[in-house]
């Protein structure tokens, strides 16, 4: 295919994605000096479609997306700027979001950090409450259509099959959506409304809280489950969850549309009440916000020499928690790595894979490794739970301590980590100027997450050299670590 330099007034700067019917480009609107995402369909590619859709249906759906999104102006919804045609190409110009789909952060059998889950779903429900109030039902809410930016902001995208009040495009009888996240009425071809989106949000939340989808299998099996079967309660699959979440999700995923929450706001109110029961009345804090940003750190690109794993399932280790990602770790750690990753992921989310790999480089035994991991857990309750998990892991593997295996004792652990383990605060003596400069240099490598990591490192030490070393540990590439330390004058 020939290179395209321009579509209408838009300069084409790159390709963001492609499919059978068109391409999404990164483009530039010189008239108002704005970068956009240009979603296109090429009419000549629409002939001979195998799914029963006609070219005019696709174009109509495309226009429907522009109309649905175009009437919505909300910080958690991808904005649409323009709709038009140029030659044989129809396009939508929309907000360019430097984000990652939620599905990239979901690891099979590993629950998402609770605070991160609540923060994400809160933004999602607020956006849907806004859309529903304006007569727009998304109808295809799923992790792939929920973008997460570097500062953990949610952006809903892809309103291609949205139902708009008074629209004649999507009539009763049409079965449209993604099977694993469709409501019973969508499978039956019945009338849908905002409560159909809430059913899908319930599925997404269930998956985040438990690590598994409530309905699984081939499309026909999923359809039967969604219409007829009640999934296991979330607290059965994740015992640390307060049973209050069971009631919230049972109502959100009720089979009859009239038995669900009347609005997204009602769903959100119930969710917040369940979270308060979980925490004993403690609302989300700044530390929870930091954990949320860490949980939604963009997955690292796998090393070229390693086999490919499913999207979002690997940074340095496979989604199964295999120790193969710790090839340079001592032998005693290989058998423990899967359990350690699961325990740490429960507290800090998918970023646990990277944190574990970095901490394991210098750990001399399990106790030392635990000390190095504790500072990455943002709350006292979380650290206590993680220490309980370490005791369970020792019991499972028949260990009292691994110090004798390495020939060294816990006394060799760095003082900074030991101080953090005791819960004794370290007085912050680093200057704001030093912290900001280090943060900006680290952001070159890892983006906005640098701000959170710098804040955490400053809580762990008041020594500038140790501060820079802690920041450098967040860079798995030895060459990047060396360049960063050189940039801050610590090579």
Keywords:
single chain, 491 residues, alpha+beta, Phosphorylase Kinase, domain 1, Transferase(Phosphotransferase), domain 1, 4 domains, 6-stranded antiparallel beta sheet, 3-stranded antiparallel beta sheet, 20 helices, globular
Structure description:
This protein is an alpha+beta fold and 491 residues long. The protein has 4 domains: 6-95, Phosphorylase Kinase, domain 1 (2-Layer Sandwich); 99-288, Transferase(Phosphotransferase) domain 1 (Transferase(Phosphotransferase), domain 1); 299-424, no CATH class; 426-491, no CATH class. Helix content is 43%, strand content 11%. The strands form 3 sheets. It has a 6-stranded antiparallel beta sheet with strand order 1-2-3-4-6-5, covered by helices on one side. A 3-stranded antiparallel beta sheet has the order 7-9-10. The protein has a two-stranded antiparallel sheet with strand order 8-11. It is globular and about 65 Å long. The relative contact order is 0.07. Mean pLDDT is 79; it is low at 166-174, 301-325 and 401-428.
